[in-house]
Amino acid sequence: MSQPYRIFRITAVAEAFSWAGLLVGMYLKRVAEVTDLGVSIFGPIHGALFVTYVVSVLWLGFKERWSVLRVLVGLSAAIPPFTTLIFERWVAGRRPAGNEKVLEPAA
C-alpha cells in the first residue's frame, strides 16, 4: 500500500468518526441542551481532520493521476457525514492489490 493511499485511508475513516462525534455534540448542545462540551472538543478535531482529508485527496489524486472529476467527488465526499467512508471503499475497489500491475487496454 502506498504512503499517500495509506494516509488517505486513515484520514477518510478518522474524518467520518469525527463527524459522528460532532453530530453527537451538536445534539447534546442544541436538542438535549445538556452541554456544549462535545462541540468544543469535536469541532476543532473535525476541522483539522477535514483539512487533512482534503490534502490527502489532492495528494493521492496527483500521485494516482486521478481525473479531475474523481478528485472533485473525493473532495465533495467530505461534506455529507460519513461519505468519506463510501468514497474510500469505492477508491479501494479500483486499486490494484499489492504488486499487481494494471493492464492497459490494447491499442
Spell out the blueprint of helices and strands.
Blueprint: H1 3-31, H2 37-63, H3 68-76, H4 83-92
What share of the residues does DSSP label as strand, in percent? under 5%
Q: Give the overall form.
A: elongated
| Chain-averaged pLDDT | 90
Order of helices and strands: HHHH
Give the low-pLDDT segments: none
Biggest beta-sheet profile: none
Key features?
elongated; 107 residues; single chain
Description:
This protein is mostly helical and 107 residues long. The chain has one domain (3-92). 70% of the residues lie in helices and 0% in strands. It contains four helices and no strands. The protein has helices spanning 3-31, 37-63, 68-76, 83-92. α1 (3-31) packs antiparallel against α2 (37-63) and α1 (3-31) runs antiparallel to α4. The longest helix is centred in the N-terminal third of the chain and has 29 residues, at 3-31. The mean pLDDT is 90.
